[in-house]
Amino acid sequence: MNNEYLTLKFGRLKAWSFKEDNIKANELLTEYETPFNNPSLILQTITDRQKEIICELIDIVSAEEIYLDWDEEYVSKQQAKEYVKNYLEK
Q: Contact at 8 Å (CB) between 23 and 84?
């Protein structure tokens, strides 16, 4: 049974689950989280490095698809990375 997943909302991480022994994921999550992040996702600023981290997490999560919470749909990993990279970009 696969318990790993990622949920994205507003171009950011909303929820996730990785196996405890997934060292790389845990390292990336530690780097992603900063004490200055606003708990409200919509107000939270995101750096280019945080976008890179999300894309790395998308690559290593064992789930086949990523859930976009706002859109209420599952997308491919490639679509999820494009979503993160291009969120609110013109």
A: no
